Amino acid sequence: MGSYLKIGLTLMAFAIVVALLLAGVYTITEEPIAQAELNVKLESIKTVLTDPVSGELLIEESDIPGSQEKLNEKIWKESEGEKLYESKKYNGYCASPAYEFTLKDGRTAYILNGASVGYGGYVTIMCSFISNGDSMEMMRLEVLDYSQETPGLGAKIAEEPVKERFFNIPESGLEKGLVVDKDSGKSPAKTKEEEKANKKEGIISVSDLMTGATITPRGVANAINTMTEYLEQTTGGDK
Amino acid sequence: MANKQNELTNGMFSNNPIFVQALGMCPTLATTTSATNGLGMGMATLAVLIMSNIVISLIRKLVPDKIRIPVYIIIIAGFVTMIDLLMHGFLYDLWKTLGLFIPLIVVNCLILGRAEAYASQNSVFKSILDALGMGLGFAGGLILLGSVREILGAGTWFGLPLWGDAFNVFIMILPPGAFITLGLLAAMFNWMGISREERKKKKEKAAKKAGESA
Asked: Is the Cβ pair A22, B81 closer than 8 Å?
């Protein structure tokens, strides 16, 4: 009996020591982790607000929030839970909160976070939608989380040339709902002009870059569609 | 000295954890989709292996025999969680690449295996050597496996393009590719081991004959 008690106490002692050490490390790293996560978020916001063609930052450098409090001032819509909006049709959601920025030229940019299902789970993206007064276009996106996609195949989605295929989608394309070219029945775009014309029809040309991986870009397209659906509902007529 | 050298090379070749002992198959198959991932997983495992071997060797006389396994697991899991937190806070980019694999290290039976079979019975210095040898053997195996799969599957090596898309065999990046490559590499290692032994035997025979005739 006594020996069992001793063994139990020894095990408890080890567990307590390791738990205390872990608690210490957790306390030390809590703040740096929050800061690192915030930095990534701010960096992505800065990226999606940079014009992909001219490379120019569309808001004042000083307008980029430097802390969580400053970022909270830019909140446009938020909800109690983690999700702002869910779309059954596209199997995706918009995450809360969404942000609103005023550009240098007075236009409004909405920054939305959202996700839809890819090959192995949700693919999370951040998009910037720019309102031109009477129309809305999607300017740029960042792929935030694609950890469940196959490396070398679906994970190519985060490479710059692939992301570029999703840049600057005009309203006509967004309204039709985005599909990847393999689902559209169209043959792959051969020239830049063709690719651009496809975007007006809501067709994203990726099959030449992502051979063998259609499901991941389909997830990204659906995430954008979910955001479009949400924006249509909330901004309605006055864009 | 020869003995110590043996401690180090044992894990790298003759007792390679992946190809000979077939330990830690879960991270081996899951994370070797590219050479970079293999390197990352190998290095993270090496770090945890060295630390856990040191601590377990230090406390080996304090732990009652009956509860040694739970104690080892507590220590290993504690280390892995600490590394995860520290990397998340201070080495964000590296954490982002390896983040998925770090919790997997806890369930790598290689680490528990070395704690149980070696560190719990040997001095700290010897345990470090053993951890280095086994860890490097594991990392080397992962890099080899990752390289083969990446080169054949994506046409790149450590992200550098080698040839165009035409030759790429996608199945190499997918799970079946992992099993096929692992099987072929293990067969190669075994064949190398067997043929080396046969050569040794032949040499011995020849030496004996030479000795007899002389």
From this structure: yes
Question: What amino acid is encoded at A151 in this protein?
Answer: P
Q: Which residues span the domain enclosing B24?
A: 2-213
Q: Which residues of A touch B170 (CB under 8 A)?
A: 153, 212
Query: What pTM, to 2 d.p., does this model score?
Result: 0.74
φ, ψ of residue B158 in degrees (nearest 5): 50, 35
Three-state DSSP at B101 gives coil
Confidence band of B1 (pLDDT split at 50, 70, 90):
very low
d(CA B152, CA B173): 8
Paired tokens of A196? 């651009």
ipTM value, please give it: 0.72
Among B70, B82, B88, whose Cβ lies nearest the Cβ of A33? B88
Query: CA of A92: how far to CAs of A10, A40, A116, A187, A218, in Å?
Result: 50, 23, 4, 27, 11
Q: Which residues of B touch A211 (CB under 8 A)?
A: 165
Residue A57 C-alpha from the chain's centroid: 19
Distance from CA of A86 to the nearest CA of B (A): 27
Amino acid at A106: G
Q: Burial of B99 by CB count in 10 Å (0-12 exposed, 13-18 middle, 19+ buried)?
A: middle
Give the Cα separation of B95 and A26 in Å (integer).
Answer: 16
Tens digits of residue pLDDT in B97-124: 777 778 888 888 888 888 888 888 889 9
Cβ partners under 8 Å of residue A42, min gap 6: A64, A65, A66, A71
Chain B contact present for A32, CB below 8 A: yes
pLDDT at residue B165, as a whole number = 63
Q: Is the peptide bond before A32 cis (omega within 30 degrees of 0)?
A: no
pLDDT digit string, tens, across residues B4-40: 667 777 777 777 888 877 887 877 888 888 888 888 8
Q: How many distinct structural domains can be found in chain B?
A: 1
